[in-house]
């Protein structure tokens, strides 16, 4: 992929640099427990706001990914061996932060027999032990060709199971060359079939060259897999060597996507230029529970 110039951001997507005391405290806590965060590794634009509120998305299984997705800023290569003490450190950090909700994600680990599924399960268990009142959202890889991995993670009983489709199927060869669109859909469908009580969630980026009709088809595919919650956010090109940014989507277009998603029956929709999988995840989880209660309420 050739280097390209990065477009100047419009006013609606610019954010302030992180400088608050609470941000520094969150950073120190992550460093003190030797934890990685996707907030840093993926250069998330919301890091200042989230860390100031002591919200962080912890990234387990190391900091090196075995995939080479062209949208992602996380480094690619041969990962180190698994740290068996990482789940315990995550549990301790979550307990000290006194969070109501935590998001746990990871790099892809195609080198591991189970793709890191058991490590996810151990991390969930450690959080339950150290922070029993914290609800847990996981954002997993696709566990491609890892038989039994999804079952292992679901058995650990997270509160929300998230797996992102990232983009429309036509762009997979360019954007997610190591992944398979319909495998990811089957994973989400499998989670619901194993445990229908779990909330499922998925997200895509826009601005990569997709069409509106393709985005609407992704919505239909996700609803066919009984996914509860969809997130849609603006793709931001991390460096000139990443997949080119084709367009900035306006706030009005995001509202159009949100309206369409609600009409298709998602319990929860988050669609805006700065929306990311774990942005406002705790607040959204509370709304998701309320939406399910409302949807299941008997007719008067």
Short structural description:
With 300 residues, the protein is an alpha/beta fold.
Number of helical segments?
11
User: Whole-number average pLDDT?
Assistant: 87
List the domain count as a whole number: 1
User: Pairing-aware structural class of the strands and helices?
Assistant: alpha/beta
Low-confidence stretches: none
Per CATH, the class reads: Alpha Beta
- Secondary structure: number of strands: 8
CATH superfamily: Aldolase class I
Shape: globular
- Report the oligomer: single chain
Q: Which range best describes the helical content: under 10%, 10-25%, 25-40%, 40-55%, 55-70% or over 70%?
A: 25-40%
Radius of gyration: 18 Å
By CATH, the architecture is named Alpha-Beta Barrel
Reading the helices and strands in chain order gives HEHHEHEHEHEHHEHEHEH
Distance between the termini: 58 Å
Report the CATH topology name: TIM Barrel
How big a fraction of the residues is strand?
A: 5-15%
Main sheet summary: 8 strands, mixed
- Placed side by side, the strands forming the largest sheet appear as 1-2-3-4-5-6-7-8
